[in-house]
C-alpha cells in the first residue's frame, strides 16, 4: 500500500532582503514622524518668565555662583523652563495648563520660529488645569492645529512637542496606553489620555498628536518621573474649557444639589433593594436650596446615567456635572427602590445652577452618613400628624414634636421640627402609618431606612434595629 506525504515548503527571503525591508519600514516611519512634527510645530509655543525676572538665567550655575562649563552649549536652569502651549485661535489665543502660569506675574511667549511676545492671562481654571493666554502685539495670523477626527485607539502613536527642561521644539514618541483614565486626582473632571510618550518638566501645556499631525490632547502631568506614565487632557475637553475661559475669563461650574455615596462602599445598605454589584451614585441628601429640590429625585435613588452617559461612581457624576454650564438642563436616570417590588428605572430633569456660598446648606456630613429611626419609644421621639399650616400645603408625614436628649435620634441629626416622610421606603402619611411601620420593623429586625426632612434638606438615614435591642 502506497502512502503519500504532502510537504509544504515555506520559502523565506534571504536575510539581507528581510533586513532591507525592515529598514524600509523604519525609514517610512521616520518620515511620518517628521511630517507629523513639522505639521504641528507652527502651532506650538513655549511659555517662560519675563526676561527681567531673576529666573531668566540661561547658564546653569554651580553652588559657588560660577557658571558651569558646557562646551559652548547653554544648559538651561531648571527654574527657567515653565511650559508649553498650543495655538487656540489664529488671532493669538494659546491654550496651556493652569499650573504652567500659576506662579508667573509676567509671561513671555516664544513661538516655534523664535519670535517673542509678551503674554497676558485671559482665564485660568485650576479644577481642570487649563488656562488661556493671549499674545500681545501679534499682527500675523497663527495656524490652529487640526483635530484628530477618528476615535482614539489603544496602541496608536502618540507624539508630543514641547520644551522639556527648556529645550524648545523637542519631539518625543510613544503610544496611547489607556483612554478615559479617571480617579487620578481629587475632583477630576476630565478623562485623561494615558501615554507612554516621554514627558518632562516643560512639556506641560504642549500638544499630544497622532502620526498625521492632528491634535489629540494637551500634555498635563506624569505619574512619577521616567515611569512611562504620562497623561493628557483630551483635545475636545480642553478646547471646550478654553472657549469658556476666553469668553468669560473664568469657569462657573454648576452643581446638582445632591450629596451621594458610592454603592461599592455600601453593599450591605443596598442589598435588600438593588441587584448585587450595582454601580452608580446613591443619593444620600438633597440640598434644600439646590437645583434638584423640586425635580422629583429622592434620597436613596441610585443615579445610573446623566444625559445618557453611564455613571459608575460619585466621581463620575461630579465629573459629568462639572463639564456642563450653569443653566444646562440635564436628564438624570435613576433606579428607585420599593419595599414590595423590584427597583424601577425613572428619569428626572434638573436645570443646573451655580452653587451658593451659604454655610447652612445641610446638616453635618458626620451626622448624615448614618441616621436614624428605630421603634417609637426606643428612639426617644415624640411625633404628631403634620398639618398644612406647618409645612405649606404638604400634609403627608409626621413631624417630630420632641427629641430626648442623648437619644440616637438626637445623635443622628433629628431635631424638633424634622418631618419623617417614609420608613423602609413606605410612605408615612400620619402617626398611625408611622407606628405601623415601626411595629413591622420590630418584628423583622435588621435595618430600617428612613427618609426625613430637616430644615428644608431631605435626606435618608439607616439604623440597625438590633443595636439597642433587648440585652444591650
What does this structure look like?
- This protein has nine helices and 24 strands.
- The strands form three sheets. Strands 13, 14, 15, 16, 17, 18, 19, 20, 21, 22, 23 and 24 form a twelve-stranded antiparallel β-sheet that branches. A six-stranded antiparallel barrel has the order 1-2-3-6-5-4. Strands 7-8-9-12-11-10 form a six-stranded antiparallel beta barrel.
- It folds into three domains: 18-53 and 79-251, Thrombin, subunit H; 258-351, Pdz3 Domain (Roll); 365-464, PDZ domain (Pdz3 Domain, Roll).
- The protein is an alpha+beta fold and 472 residues long.
- Mean pLDDT is 77; it is low at 54-80, 357-377, 389-393 and 467-472.
- The chain has helices at residues 15-40, 98-101, 235-248, 267-270, 314-322, 365-368, 376-379, 408-411, 431-444, and strands at residues 44-49, 83-89, 93-96, 107-111, 116-125, 130-135, 157-162, 170-181, 192-195, 207-209, 215-222, 230-234, 258-261, 281-286, 302-306, 309-310, 329-336, 344-351, 381-385, 398-403, 419-423, 426-427, 447-454, 457-464.
- Helix content is 18%, strand content 30%.
- The longest helix has 26 residues, at 15-40.
Low-confidence stretches: 54-80, 357-377, 389-393, 467-472
Q: Quickly give the CATH architecture of the largest domain.
A: Beta Barrel
The percentage helix is 10-25%
What is the distance, rounded to the nearest whole angstrom, between the alpha carbons of the first and last residues? Answer: 92 Å
Residues in β-strands, percent: 25-35%
Secondary-structure-based class equals: alpha+beta
Task: Give the biggest beta sheet.
Answer: 12 strands, antiparallel
Broad shape: flat
Based on DSSP secondary structure assignment, what is the total number of beta strands? Answer: 24
Q: Could you say how many structural domains there are in total?
A: 3
Amino acid at each position: 500500500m502506497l502512502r503519500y506525504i504532502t510537504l509544504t515548503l515555506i520559502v523565506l527571503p534571504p536575510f539581507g532582503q528581510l533586513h532591507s525591508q525592515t529598514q524600509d519600514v523604519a525609514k517610512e516611519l521616520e518620515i511620518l514622524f517628521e511630517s507629523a512634527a513639522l505639521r504641528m510645530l507652527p502651532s506650538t509655543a513655549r511659555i517662560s518668565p519675563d526676561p527681567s525676572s531673576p529666573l531668566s538665567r540661561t547658564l546653569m550655575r554651580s553652588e559657588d555662583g560660577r557658571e558651569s562649563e558646557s562646551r559652548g552649549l547653554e544648559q538651561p536652569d531648571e527654574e527657567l523652563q515653565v511650559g508649553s502651549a498650543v495655538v487656540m485661535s489664529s488671532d493669538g489665543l494659546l491654550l496651556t495648563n493652569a499650573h504652567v502660569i500659576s506662579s508667573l506675574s509676567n509671561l513671555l511667549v516664544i513661538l516655534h520660529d523664535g519670535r517673542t511676545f509678551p503674554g497676558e492671562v485671559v482665564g485660568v481654571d485650576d479644577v481642570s488645569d487649563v488656562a488661556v493666554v493671549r499674545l500681545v502685539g501679534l499682527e500675523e495670523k497663527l495656524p490652529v492645529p487640526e483635530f484628530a477626527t477618528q476615535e482614539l485607539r489603544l496602541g496608536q502613536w502618540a507624539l508630543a512637542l514641547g520644551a522639556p527642561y527648556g529645550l524648545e521644539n523637542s519631539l518625543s514618541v510613544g503610544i496611547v496606553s489607556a483612554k478615559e483614565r479617571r480617579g487620578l486626582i481629587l475632583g477630576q473632571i476630565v478623562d485623561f489620555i494615558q501615554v507612554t510618550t516621554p514627558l518632562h518638566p516643560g512639556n506641560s501645556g504642549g500638544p499630544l498628536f497622532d502620526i498625521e499631525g492632528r491634535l489629540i490632547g494637551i500634555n498635563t502631568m506624569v505619574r512619577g518621573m521616567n515611569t512611562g506614565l504620562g497623561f493628557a487632557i483630551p483635545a475636545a475637553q480642553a478646547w471646550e474649557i478654553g472657549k469658556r475661559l476666553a469668553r468669560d475669563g473664568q469657569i462657573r461650574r454648576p452643581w446638582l444639589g445632591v450629596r451621594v455615596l458610592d454603592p461599592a462602599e455600601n453593599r450591605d445598605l443596598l442589598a435588600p433593594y438593588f441587584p448585587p454589584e450595582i454601580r452608580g451614585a446613591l443619593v444620600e441628601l438633597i440640598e434644600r436650596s439646590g437645583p434638584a429640590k423640586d425635580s422629583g429625585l429622592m434620597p436613596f435613588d441610585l443615579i445610573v446615567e446623566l444625559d445618557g452617559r453611564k455613571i459608575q461612581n460619585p466621581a463620575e457624576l461630579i465629573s459629568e456635572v462639572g463639564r456642563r454650564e450653569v443653566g444646562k438642563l440635564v436628564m438624570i436616570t435613576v433606579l428607585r427602590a420599593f419595599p414590595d417590588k423590584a427597583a424601577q428605572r425613572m428619569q428626572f430633569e434638573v436645570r443646573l445652577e451655580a452653587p451658593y456660598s451659604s454655610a447652612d446648606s445641610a446638616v453635618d456630613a458626620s451626622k448624615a452618613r448614618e441616621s436614624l429611626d428605630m421603634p417609637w419609644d426606643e428612639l426617644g421621639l415624640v411625633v404628631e400628624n403634620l398639618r398644612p399650616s406647618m409645612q405649606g400645603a404638604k400634609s403627608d408625614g409626621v413631624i417630630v414634636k420632641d427629641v430626648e436628649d442623648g437619644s440616637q435620634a438626637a445623635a443622628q441629626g433629628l431635631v424638633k421640627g424634622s418631618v419623617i416622610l417614609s420608613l423602609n421606603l413606605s410612605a408615612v402619611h400620619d402617626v398611625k402609618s408611622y407606628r405601623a411601620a415601626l411595629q413591622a420593623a420590630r418584628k423583622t429586625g435588621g435595618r430600617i431606612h428612613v427618609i426625613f426632612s430637616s430644615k428644608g434638606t431631605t435626606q435618608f438615614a439607616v439604623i440597625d434595629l438590633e443595636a439597642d435591642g433587648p440585652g444591650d
